[in-house]
Amino acid sequence: MKKSKNEFWEWTKALVIAVLLAAVIRYFLFAPIVVDGLSMMPTLQDHDRMIVNKLSYKIGKPKRFDIIVFHAPEHKDYIKRVIGLPGDRIEYKNDTLYINGKAYKEPYLDEYKKQVIDGPLTDPFTLKEKIGRETVPKGQLFVMGDNRRFSKDSRHIGTIPMDKVIGKASIIYWPIKHIRIVK
User: What is its main location (predicted)?
Assistant: First the structure.
């Protein structure tokens, strides 16, 4: 009787520790997210399941072209690509991204650019036209979806405060045929 009571207590302790450990990992380190919609195609597909690294920006700062998850003004979590960092001047012309006057290649858009026959993938704009400022404000990010024609992003909702960023999303774990590290 004493042995079975002791064994029950050991299993209970192990289960409680496992649940607490899982909660700490999910709340502070990593969280799953499901891609909802087509705004990040072709890079991410609707219903892809990803891991969000919450620790990534507690240690460092977002980098240009990182894919991040953030709390959007619509009380939803969005997944988009960082285009502009604080102090950047952003402009699009002739389907080319210019940051601080320098042209940047966006290889993740090449597949879509080849498919477009009726104009540019990304309509021309300046940051001033979109947010009323020449540069991305301090402590904010300018983000865009890879599916430029069908993405609700900083061109529509404005810049994103850094404190709204949940973390970096870079690993697709489901469906199995999509498993990969995303760049």
Answer: membrane
